[in-house]
Amino acid sequence: MNVYAPQSASSKRALWAHIKDLKASRGVIWIILGDFNQVRSVEEKRNCVFDPVSVADFSSFIYEVNLAEYLMNGSKFTRWLDGGNKMSKLDRMLVCDKFWGLWPTVTLRTLPRNLSGHCPLVFITTSTDFGSIPFKFFNAWLSKPGLDTAVRSTVTSFNFYGPHDVSLAEKLRCIKKVVKEWNNKTKKEENVSLSTSAEVIKKLDLLCEIRDLSEAEKSDYMEYKNNINMINDSRVNELQQKSQVRFGDRRG
User: Fold this and answer.
1) Domains in the chain: boundaries
2) Share above pLDDT 90 across residues of the chain, in percent, rounded to a whole number
3) Separation of alpha carbons 239 and 232, rounded Å
4) Fold of 2-124
5) Which of 4, 122, 149, 175 has the most CB atoms at less than 10 Å from its CB?
6) Which residues, at least 6 apart from 224, have a Cβ–Cβ distance to it below 8 Å?
7) For 130-180, what is each residue's pLDDT tens digit?
């Protein structure tokens, strides 16, 4: 179904209701695309009036009709006005769960708009672009300090206005960013700790050649040795999980 939605909120509600009735009366695979004249979140507009009531109406329609929206690549917005000062994402593609199940990797790509106010959209069913590298979480991280605090702080401070599915995706994106930053920081701290521990053990080994170590020095030796073993064991566990993710667990 090709859609060119009206401007007024009441007319759009009537259109959503009409599409809902049509879909309920016809058990076929549905693809609904075109200019819906409606955004789903404040992030889909720039320098334009934002109507939260219309957003809620549109989101409720998508949820009640059991539709899903594919990822759009190319550009963030599809409609330009006032010489590019006003932008919004009005054009999109919605599909039923049957279509999604048959073609889960479909994407919608925008093309250069040239002199038009709208970007042309291309429907791509061939997976030539695999997108971003998937985010992987490793069990070994759970034993390291700071991760729980970083994630809890991000979830507690998260604030987003928009549809529930968009909100969840944005929350996960924020958590992913924080976990990556924490992991990079932790690796740097571990490298410094390994270097320091190895240097202390080297000095204590040299002392062992000329005299017996004191109790305090023996305690330091064991402490730094255990620190190296703990960090190395954690990294080995992480490497084992990475290998299973990449190549599969072949032990069975």
Assistant:
1) 2-124, 139-247
2) 19
3) 10
4) Deoxyribonuclease I; Chain A (3.60.10)
5) 175
6) 196, 197, 198, 200, 201
7) 556 677 788 878 888 899 999 999 999 888 777 777 788 888 889 999 999
Tokens linked to 122 = 């291309």
Given a contact cutoff of 8 angstroms between Cβ atoms, the answer to whether 121 and 109 are in contact is yes
Buried b (16+ CB within 10 A) or exposed e, 18-46: ebeeebeeeeeebbbbbebbbbbbeebbe
Using alpha carbons, select from 57, 135, 65, 136 the residue that is nearest to residue 100.
65
CA 10 – CA 6 distance, rounded (Å):
9
**Token pair listed for 252:** 């069975």
What span, in angstroms and rounded, lies between the C-alpha atoms of 33 and 195?
58
| Token pair 């206005």: residue | 161
Grouping H, G, I as helix, E, B as strand and the rest as coil, residue 68 is strand
Amino acid at 56: A
